[in-house]
Sequence to fold (788 residues):
Amino acid sequence: MTLVDINDFSFKYLGAESLALKKINLQIEAGEYIVITGPSGCGKTTLCRTINGLVPHFHRGYIAGNVVIDGLNTRESKVPDLAPIAGLVFQNPANQLVTLNVEKELAFGPENLGVDPTEIRNRVDSLIETLDLEHLREKHPHEMSGGEQQRVAIAATLAMQPKILVADEPTSNLDPKSARVILKIISELNKEGMTVMLVEHRLDLVARNATRIILMNQGSIVADGPSREVLALNICDEIGVGIPKATQVYKQLKQKGIDLGTVPLTGEELAVLVEEVRSV
Amino acid sequence: MLLLNCLEGYNISFLEVFQYTRQESVIHQLDPRSKLALSITVAAITLLFLNIIPLLIIFLCMIPLLAAAKSLRRWATSMKGLSFLLVFIVIFNTLLSTVENPLSFSIALAIRLLALMSSFSIFFLTVHPDELSQALIQMKVKFEFAFAMSMAMRYVPTLAQEAYAIMDAQRARGVEMDKGNLLKRIRNIVPIIVPLIIVSIRRALSIAESMESRGFGASENRTYMEQLTFRKRDWAVLFVSVILLIVTIYLRFFTILPDWVLWGLPL
Amino acid sequence: MGSNGAGKTTLVKHINGLIRPNNGRVILDGTDTKYMSVAEIARVVGLVWQNPDHQLFLDSIKKEVTFGLKNIGFSDADANDMCNRTLVRLGLEGFAERSPFSLSGGERKRVALASVLATEPRVLALDEPTIGQDAKQKKKLIELLKELNTRGCTVICITHDIEFVIENFPRTIAMADGKIIADGSTHSVLTNDVVLERCSLTEPELTIAARSLNKRFSQVSNRLTLLSELEDAITELLGGI
Fold:
């Protein structure tokens, strides 16, 4: 079923000179893993905030078109109504942890929504186990590393049991190892059925797991399709999107007249393709 | 409490007595509300007397409570840190006050300060900031206010770190903070304060987005995972506090106090 | 490069005197820095921080850029000239009278960079300049750094971004636990597994590809780092089909 249905949606921030989103048309089915990427200022951050209602309720502005999330239109439904459906994880880990310990943080969302205390306790305990947060239980946010903080932030969002997890550049402020851990968690969540919408620059890490990649530029969607299709397009270079190196090699070789067949997304895939072509 | 993080390098050790430490003790396990009642009662009682003996009695009664809270050593070090201030109070009051027995009066004042601090320290040493927040909420303080208080505490170390980073950034541009006359030094605060305010505002907006996304302010019927409940021992503490207060008020205002209570240093 | 807490920022802060050594010396261009104040060192060493908002506080970009210049002792006239030159260089010409707070994050980063570059430092250190930057912005940054370097400026970059380093920096210093564990050509330092492990770094994409190829075709070196090298290796393997 279509979980996210964005129809001809445009948005201009109050006081801005140009549209942040221009006639966006995007449908996301349950269970998909969507990766959104594009140069700075292309509207990907605004798009994330459209999913859970921050646009237009928190960020005022002018809207046109409709965004329907699991049957609820964001024009009418407020952010708290959409919170149990769409969970948002942000770029800065420290700004998402507002309490003094992990338990309270995880309980924060459900408490706000008026969930039964025993149920909250169950959710908190089960999330601490699933996301391996036991050793962090009593720690103050300031004592945690960026990667640990972001793990807690994800858990805090999952505590509301959303149907879609939207993550806006969750790894940008993290070191490479923590970034991989977070992306692995997200990809595992998707394998278990969570619909995921991820804004990410490091395409080499997520291209394989994504069901679709969406390229944005200056407020519009310029490409939308499976990773191997989209990353092979020339528009990636035109707008300045960093594609996986293996894909770059594929493209360069193609220009020289060497066609490897399928588009590789990782170094390993590239090697396999070379082997196949050679043995022919 | 967490203010201590900001005051690094300054020897204000007497503030330690207001900092929570996790301990397994009878006092720690009491509901914060009963402890609040106890602390306020003791504070009220100390304010009723200005003579050495009664204040000394009250002060000495704090000691077993602090021992029960397993915080005697911390309290003792803080009291030591306070000693300079106490001597200062005694000397100045003796020299400047107009009561008939100034030395006795000054010493009584000093003991009163000690007793007051000790009584509130029992509270702050044994109540976790989250418990305090929850206690306030259950005493009908609006959630937003109690939460704003705990959020402020949560962000103190983060803000302190930000302030240091800003100082480093501006020093690296040639801002010299330790030079110049008083006026110049005050002007040099501007390159620190302005970025700090801006950064804090940006941070606040980011935090607000995250909180809003998790339903903050959604419903009047907010639930709480951990509720504080009064147990028998809490009622006992509350009962004892009230009785103590009534008895002391009666003794102080409605009876003639015997001479030994009113004893003062002959000076 | 190095893992969190390895001491990278601490080390760089010694270069401009924000931190003074407990033991040993820091010698800047022949002079021991213990004889120089931070402000004096700021004439020679420029430090660009990760968060531009940590330094922006004036109400116009022009004032912001000339601030550092005046602190160091340049006259108003000189400061204005240098400011204008720098603004043009960084593509900020029309912005002189605008308030830095009205700009986007990326633009503010450029303003912060401008205010440091205006002093024409001989040593430029940058703390995590690529975070939050898209591919185009990174390209512009590296072009600027290369231009500065050609003109004699020493460039030091603290970063986690291994791809950025491997494509652009000839020398890499790897740190772990407060020590320097490797210092040499980027190519050899960043293809060393021990270094990568201790610095919590992950293999560069192209090296992963090289290793996969090397497993199947031993004539391909498993320590390739450049796109062109990989291209050539594959072209050779496929016999120029």
